[in-house]
Amino acid sequence: MSDHATYSFTAPLWRWRDPKGGGEGAWHFVTVPGEPSDDIHDLMDGRAKGFGSVRVAVRVGATSWETSVFPESGTGCYVLPVKKAVRAAEGLEEGDDVDVTVTLRDDA
């Protein structure tokens, strides 16, 4: 794997909704677009953690944190959880376009 692979993109912030009709949750995500998702999958082939998760460092605006991205079963793209503290610090709401930089962690 190429250490410190970094991807920057803009994508809308969306809220998870229960596909079984149980309502909407508090979890918010940004979907990593196709090409970066494909690259991450190729780089991490055989090295991903539980549920196919990949550890990343993230920057949105002035806020940085570490988390994991997870493959979304329907699209094959990765999804990035955006916690409440980040949304509040950056003034983000569901539907907003978010400028994101994701860097794969060395220990991914």
UniProtKB/TrEMBL annotation:
Q: Which Gene3D superfamilies match?
A: AF2212/PG0164-like
Which top-rank group of organisms is this from? Answer: Bacteria
**InterPro entries attached to this UniProt entry:** AF2212/PG0164-like_sf (IPR037079), DUF1905 (IPR015018)
Which Pfam families has this protein been placed in? DUF1905
Q: What is this protein called?
A: DUF1905 domain-containing protein
This protein's species is Nocardioides guangzhouensis
Q: What is the lineage of its organism?
A: Bacteria, Bacillati, Actinomycetota, Actinomycetes, Propionibacteriales
